[in-house]
Write a structure and sequence with these properties.
Layout lengths: L1 E8 L5 E9 L5 E6 L8 E3 L4 E5 L5 E6 L4 H4 L24 E12 L5 H6 L27 H14 L12 E11 L2
Antiparallel strand pairs: 1-2, 2-3, 4-7, 5-6, 7-8
Length: 186
């Protein structure tokens, strides 16, 4: 399948979120696929594990984030220790401290990831792996020595997605590539 970028258009002619028109390998359109991540100009908020931060006398001070942050860094003797963390899915947008501004969205094959892209994903190469070891089912014949961050990303990808049918690194699935800039609320 190949894809052609574009926007979904409403009846009044205004553009909706970014979409991708998928085409069958033997020709002919398969239809539009809407990006679940929106399109350029949209904002996404990061949902983190959180809890209500309470003072010693029970007054709400704000929100504490499990990953650390303003309240977690302050003197713990001024507020009660958190005993019940809430999953990020319950974090309201107004309470999110990180917002992502979507710059671009497109569809590409997983193996199209570059060494620079893999570094930006934050993976760390594993020094225990032989540099001569090839990346599994990589058409570009990359090795862990020539592309250590791509190799680390492939291992992370398989650790998360290997059990899902058609989603392993060796399957080279179509993925959404979202470029964004990060805003952190003070």
């Amino acid at each position: 399948m190949t894809g052609v970028p574009g926007n979904l258009v409403r009846a009044d002619g205004s553009a909706m979120h970014c979409g991708w028109q998928m085409e069958h390998p033997r020709g002919g359109p398969l239809g539009w696929v809407r990006s679940p991540y929106g399109g350029p100009g949209d904002r996404l908020w990061v949902r983190e594990t959180w809890a209500d931060a309470l003072s010693l006398d029970g007054k709400r001070l704000g929100i504490a984030f499990r990953a650390g942050g303003p309240l977690s860094m302050q003197h713990p003797d001024h507020w009660r220790p958190v005993t019940k963390w809430k999953p990020g899915i319950h974090l309201r947008r107004v309470n999110a401290r990180i917002t992502l501004d979507v710059l671009s969205v497109r569809v590409e094959r997983l193996h199209a990831i570059t060494e620079e892209d893999a570094k930006a994903e934050g993976v760390t190469p594993d020094a225990r792996i032989s540099p001569e070891q090839p990346l599994c089912a990589d058409a570009q014949r990359r090795t862990f020595g020539t592309h250590p961050h791509v190799g680390a990303f492939a291992m992370l990808w398989d650790g998360i997605n290997d059990e899902r049918p058609g989603c392993a690194w060796s399957d080279n699935p179509w993925v959404w590539r979202v470029e964004f800039s990060r805003r952190v609320r003070p």
